[in-house]
Amino acid sequence: MTDTEGQDQSGDQLQEPNPLAPHCVIAVPVRNELDRIGACLHALAVQEEIEPEALGIVLFLNNCTDGTAEAVAELTPVLRVQVRVIEREFAGAHAGWARREAMEAAAAWLDESLDEETALEGVILTTDADSRVPPDWVARNLAALAQGADAVAGTIALDAAEAACLPEALHARGRLEGAYEAALIAIEAQIDPVAHDPWPRHATRSGATLAVRLSAYRAAGGMPAILLGEDRAFVAALLAADARVRHAPDIVVVTSGRLDGRAPGGAADTMRRRCEVPEGPCDPRLEPLWRALFRFAWQRRLRRLHAAGRLDRTGLWAPWLQIGADAARRIAALPTLGARLAAIKAESPLLSARPLSPSALPRHIRGAQVLLAGLQYGARALRILRGLSPRKPRPTLGQASEPAGHA
């Protein structure tokens, strides 16, 4: 591996402290993105509602052979924000490794620029070199964090021009999957609501749009340097550490709809595989409705047992989930609710993923929509009944309540 990192846009060595102190740093892994890196950078550099000196960008160029590095060298001097460029060649490079390296460099920048306490409140954001963020992307992420979240997952939309070139069958399947996922999310919000991640929300966990406080990033162990699915694994690690993750539906990033992606096993490979095998299984979270309901109900029960301090009493839940006594005791000894929930899901055969086939989606969508309508109607009726229930009048100021039984 060779490491040629060393300069920001002013030509200073990377190791030297920068007189400006960004409190938000965007980490972008880049590999052979000559045609797209310009649009990505320009979108990042025109962020609204944040001062240019408060924002930094780390470009982690790994194994680029198509002129991307030269294009970046021309682009960065004219941008109004600070940019640090790291170039590496590494035979074992993959998407998860590249994103971790980029985010670790972002974390190091916050550490060197800010004092220890302020740095932990700094924010790392990440996106992809083939994506274009909206002008208020940083502002919306910061707003979600200011409302109490530790991390924010946005959602994505395919580039319209590239999406138009994809087969209609792929779009049709996407619409079905989207409809079922939306219904499941709404049902889950009715059965197992989460205060810091209220409905409307989504279930996307994409490296194209993530934001995290540095303190939460460190608590979760950083971005996993794994071959595939590092973004989903990172959010899972955050949840296991009891970080408050907000799935914000108002944060939408446009990403590539190409079928020749740079990361083996990534989104492009998934779309291409679905074109080749239309009846391939859906995403694991698109499970049969009855299994989803079982999962949501048990999530709710386990949260309540935890809140009551009774999750250590494994006999209350382990036998019902077909989890043995030894495994249950190991799970009960875990330090956080998030870690316990993840371990229970992994251990119980009743909670294992069983994704649907595309042909089964229409009937499960119908069932989910009927159930959701019933849950929403029931919730509205309950609110009305609570509003009609008689309440004892409160004494006015200076008026003492009479003791019970006084004539």
List keywords for this structure.
single chain; globular; disordered C terminus; disordered N terminus; 407 residues
Structural features, described:
With 407 residues, the chain is α/β, with parallel strands linked by helices. The chain has two domains: 2-276, Spore Coat Polysaccharide Biosynthesis Protein SpsA, Chain A; 289-386, no CATH class. Helices cover 42% and strands 14% of the residues. It is built from 14 helices and ten strands. The protein has helices at 37-45, 68-75, 95-113, 116-120, 137-146, 160-163, 168-191, 214-219, 230-240, 267-276, 289-307, 325-332, 337-347, 361-388; strands at 2-3, 7-8, 24-30, 55-62, 82-89, 123-126, 131-132, 151-158, 210-213, 245-255. Strands 1, 2, 3, 4, 5, 6, 7, 8, 9 and 10 form a ten-stranded mixed beta sheet that branches. The radius of gyration is 25 Å and the shape is globular. The N and C termini lie far apart (91 Å).
Helix-strand blueprint:
Blueprint (H helix, E strand, L loop, with lengths): L1 E2 L3 E2 L15 E7 L6 H9 L9 E8 L5 H8 L6 E8 L5 H19 L2 H5 L2 E4 L4 E2 L4 H10 L4 E8 L1 H4 L4 H24 L18 E4 H6 L10 H11 L4 E11 L11 H10 L12 H19 L17 H8 L4 H11 L13 H28 L19
Parallel strand pairs: 3-4, 3-6, 4-5, 8-10
Antiparallel strand pairs: 1-5, 2-5, 6-9, 7-10, 8-9
